[in-house]
Write a structure and sequence with these properties.
Elements: H1 2-13, H2 18-48, H3 55-86, H4 89-100, H5 112-133, H6 142-163, H7 169-178, H8 180-193, H9 199-222, H10 230-247
Helix pairs in contact: 1-9, 2-3, 3-5, 3-6, 4-9, 5-6, 6-8, 6-9, 8-9
């Protein structure tokens, strides 16, 4: 638990980095634009559509629907802001590594397709599962289910985003399974931060930075090495094919 708390403190400290602040402003701007667009679109639909012919009841329905959109926005904010930020959080990982792990070689990284497809999948799964949780909204079980579900999803998403930059998918899966309990606890904290107004704006940055520190601490114990860089892999493939031609 001490390592998780330490990672969180370092994550908060990362907010002073100029590169990190640029990511915050950009991801927040896009997230807010998405939610404002959603709200405006629904507001227009409610205004031009008559669901109930009786005037007062129609007005009440519109108010309830708008309140529902606000509540849904709050619930889905973690998924959307994480998905939007995931396309830029790589820069946060680089900033953390530059500041705390300058001895590391340049990360092999991922291709654009490798980073976008998992992000879209994560967004779809997270939104879908959170919508399934809505019937529990007015029950005492909702907070536990909500934070447990999003804690698992967010911890996995952030871990894979950080880990797959440096190690192979099989090594990342082994490492994640090895440290799944502290990773889940850290993820539950991420989910909680994302539901706190103001804090949820910078929560993805803190979560990313904290995950980098946790990943490097766990990797130092378990020892998976960096995967080959794409250029290195091509050189090996060319060398192998040349050897085969020569032998043939």
């Amino acid at each position: 638990m001490g390592r998780i708390i330490s990672a969180y403190f370092k994550g908060f400290g990362q907010l002073s980095d100029p590169q990190t602040r640029t990511v915050i402003l950009t991801s927040v701007a896009w997230s807010l634009a998405i939610f404002v667009g959603l709200y405006v679109a629904l507001y227009i639909v409610l205004k031009i559509t008559t669901f109930i012919a009786i005037g007062p009841l129609e007005m009440i329905f519109d108010i309830v629907a708008q309140v529902g959109v606000i509540a849904l926005t709050w619930l889905l904010f973690p998924a959307v802001v994480t998905a939007v930020g995931a396309l830029m959080l790589d820069k946060v990982v680089e900033a953390v590594e530059k500041r705390h792990y300058s001895h590391l070689a340049v990360a092999p990284g991922q291709s654009l397709g490798e980073s976008i497809l998992p992000t879209l999948k994560f967004l779809g799964v997270t939104v879908g599962l959170n919508l399934l949780c809505l019937p529990l909204l007015l029950t005492p079980l909702f907070p536990f289910v909500y934070y447990a579900l999003n804690g698992y999803l967010l911890s996995r998403e952030y871990f894979e985003m950080v880990a797959l930059r440096r190690i192979s998918a099989p090594d990342a899966n082994v490492l994640r399974q090895r440290w799944k309990t502290p990773l889940f606890l850290a993820g539950a904290g991420f989910a909680f931060m994302l539901t706190i107004p103001i804090l949820n704006i910078v929560a993805p940055i803190i979560a990313t930075a904290a995950t980098v520190h946790l990943f490097e601490a766990w990797r130092a114990k378990d020892g998976p090495a960096d995967k080959p860089r794409p250029t290195d892999a091509k050189k090996v493939a060319l060398r192998t094919s040349s050897t085969d031609v020569t032998e043939g």
